[in-house]
Amino acid sequence: MIGRAQLAEQFLELGLTKGASVLVHSSLKSLGWVQGGADAVVGALTDAVGPEGTVMVPNLPFRGTLTRYLETQPTFDVRSTPSLMGAITEAL
């Protein structure tokens, strides 16, 4: 089991720095059991880069092809349209 503080320390040990901009391609299940789940991972990333840093994740609101998604004429709302790229992207 690992928690937010331990993850933040490990991100810094891996070379993440305060003020950095980082694009995270993630898999929560590949981290093993994290106390606090995806929210703890996001918290650890933001703790590691600090208030001057930026944490980014890929975010797609669909599965399948873009063409099929656009044919449905969806309304995208940044506040409510879910990310279908995983728990960490949804938590951020």
How far the N terminus sits from the C terminus, by CA atoms, comes to: 21 Å
Q: Using only CA atoms, what is the Rg?
A: 15 Å
Total of helices: 4
Total count of strands = 2
Strand and helix order: HEHEHH
- State the secondary-structure class: mainly alpha
Low-confidence stretches: none
Helix % is 25-40%
Q: In this structure, how is the largest beta sheet organized? A: 2 strands, parallel
Please state how the strands of the largest beta sheet are arranged side by side: 1-2
Shape: elongated
The fraction of residues assigned to DSSP E strands is 5-15%
As for the number of domains, it is 1
Q: What integer is the average pLDDT?
A: 93
Tell me what the structure shows.
The protein is mainly α and 92 residues long. It has one domain. The chain has 4 helices and 2 strands, in the order H-E-H-E-H-H. Strands 1-2 form a two-stranded parallel ribbon. Helix 1 (4-13) crosses helix 2. The radius of gyration is 15 Å and the shape is elongated.
Key features?
single chain; 92 residues; mainly alpha; 7% strand
In short:
This protein is mainly α. The protein has helices spanning 4-13, 37-49, 66-71, 87-91; strands at residues 21-23, 54-56.
Tell me the layout of helices and strands.
Elements: H1 4-13, E1 21-23, H2 37-49, E2 54-56, H3 66-71, H4 87-91
Parallel strand pairs: 1-2
